[in-house]
Amino acid sequence: MRERIAETLGDVHWSDLRAHLARDAVIIVDDALDLLDVGVALAKNDVPSVDAWIRAGKLQKPTAEELTRWSLDASTRFLAAIVQPFVLIRRPPAKALS
């Protein structure tokens, strides 16, 4: 299962996520967690682990502020993995002010 999820792992543009955001299927995974570990836990319906991560704020839905900020920059890219019906993403790194 981990290998199957790893095959879906890659960078995606903001525009690639819009349809998934519209169906409320995007989950942000905290940098402290391994994206593939989270994917496997979701796929195996590991409720105790997933619930603990949600309670700790390590799995979240994007906020309205994040969605607005990301939509303003078409070059925004995310590391993502697919675990049907969800798309797991990392927040993009903060851009330095010039």
Label the structural class: alpha+beta
Number of helices: 5
Estimate what percentage of residues fall within beta strands. Answer: 15-25%
For the biggest sheet, the summary is: 5 strands, mixed
The shape, in one word, is globular
In which range does the helix fraction lie? 40-55%
Report how far the terminal alpha carbons are from each other: 43 Å
**Biggest sheet, strands in spatial order?**
1-4-5-2-3
- Mean pLDDT over all positions: 92
Element-by-element helix/strand order: HEHEHHEHEE
Low-confidence stretches: none
Gyration radius, to the nearest Å? 13 Å
Number of strands: 5
Oligomer: single chain
Descriptive account of the structure:
This protein has 98 residues and is of the alpha+beta class. The protein has helices at residues 2-8, 14-22, 35-43, 47-55, 64-71, and strands spanning 10-13, 26-29, 59-60, 77-83, 86-89. The protein starts with a helix and ends in a 9-residue tail after the last strand. It contains five helices and five strands, in the order αβαβααβαββ. The model has no long low-confidence stretch (mean pLDDT 92). It has a five-stranded mixed β-sheet. It is globular, with a radius of gyration of 13 Å. A hairpin with a 2-residue loop joins β4 and β5. 43% of the residues lie in helices and 21% in strands.
